[in-house]
């Protein structure tokens, strides 16, 4: 095998539902760990075992290990399934995967927040409470996003940063979101035009005969 491998990004998935790449962990709920693999060309590699050895840790505690056999067809895998784990305490948890192929070693880690699954309702509750008390839908939705970002990132400061760069700027840069913005803009313009031109009043008068 004339390649070397590097550890890429870690993703975790809900084991029961199969939801891929979740951002937070629920206490007492199992999750599976996947590791991305990055392959690089290598020279003078002889007598390779063609076997990737891996170990998975959570908070520096061993959880799982195994091997991944690389076949001779040169179809190099881009991900590696690194077992399952469960955490029971709320807070920040570090998921780490170490790999080894022949003389090449690598590792990757990522921090996740864990909390009781009932707290998943918190952003929605915040939105409902503020929408009812302030009658300001935009402000309420923004506060709900901010609370959710704080739960995912773990701190208020990181939650504020995540709200801006991930949930606002990246959302604005998304092409599909752009179509929604344009549709809402043109629809609002059409409604405003109908209202100013008297078209809405005409439609209302036309529909009156059908209302009993």
Brief rundown of the structure:
38% of the residues lie in helices and 34% in strands.
Describe this structure in words.
The chain is α+β, with helices and mostly antiparallel strands. It has 5 helices and 8 strands; from the N terminus they run ββββββββααααα. The protein has helices at residues 122-134, 137-153, 156-173, 175-197, 199-207, and strands spanning 3-14, 24-26, 31-41, 51-58, 61-69, 79-85, 91-101, 104-115. The strands form 2 sheets. A 5-stranded mixed β-sheet has the order 2-8-7-4-5, covered by helices on one side. Strands 1-3-6 form a 3-stranded antiparallel β-sheet, with no helix packed on it. A hairpin with a 2-residue loop joins β7 and β8 (104-115). α1 packs antiparallel against α2. The chain is elongated. The termini are far apart.
Main traits of this protein?
212 residues, alpha+beta, five-stranded mixed beta sheet, 34% strand, elongated
Using the alpha-carbon principal axes, give the shape.
elongated
Write down the overall mean pLDDT: 87
Q: C-alpha Rg, in Å? A: 26 Å
Uncertain stretches of 5 or more adjacent residues: none
Q: Strand order within the widest sheet?
A: 2-8-7-4-5
Structural class: alpha+beta
Measured as a percent range, the helix fraction is 25-40%
Number of helices: 5
* Terminal Cα span: 81 Å
Strand percentage, roughly?
25-35%
What is the β-strand count? 8
What sequence of helices (H) and strands (E) makes up the elements? EEEEEEEEHHHHH
Describe the largest sheet: 5 strands, mixed
């Amino acid at each position: 095998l004339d390649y070397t491998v590097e550890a890429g990004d870690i993703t975790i998935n809900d084991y029961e539902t199969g939801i891929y790449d979740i951002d937070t962990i629920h206490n007492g709920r199992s999750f599976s760990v996947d590791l991305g693999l990055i392959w690089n060309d290598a020279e003078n590699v002889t007598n390779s075992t063609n076997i990737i050895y891996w170990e998975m840790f959570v908070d520096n505690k061993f959880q799982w290990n195994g091997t991944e056999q690389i076949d001779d067809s040169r179809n190099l895998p881009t991900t590696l399934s690194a077992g399952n784990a469960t955490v029971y305490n709320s807070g920040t948890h570090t998921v780490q995967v170490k790999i080894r192929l022949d003389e090449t070693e690598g590792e990757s880690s990522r921090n996740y927040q864990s909390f009781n699954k009932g707290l998943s309702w918190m952003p929605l509750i915040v939105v409902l409470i503020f929408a009812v008390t302030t009658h300001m839908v935009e402000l309420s939705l923004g506060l709900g996003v901010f609370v959710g970002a704080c739960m995912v990132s773990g701190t208020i400061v990181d939650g504020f940063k995540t709200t801006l760069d991930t949930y606002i700027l990246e959302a604005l840069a998304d092409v599909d979101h752009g179509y929604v913005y344009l549709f809402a803009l043109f629809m609002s313009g059409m409604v405003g035009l109908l209202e100013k031109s008297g078209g809405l009043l005409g439609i209302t008068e036309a529909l009156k005969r059908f209302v009993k």
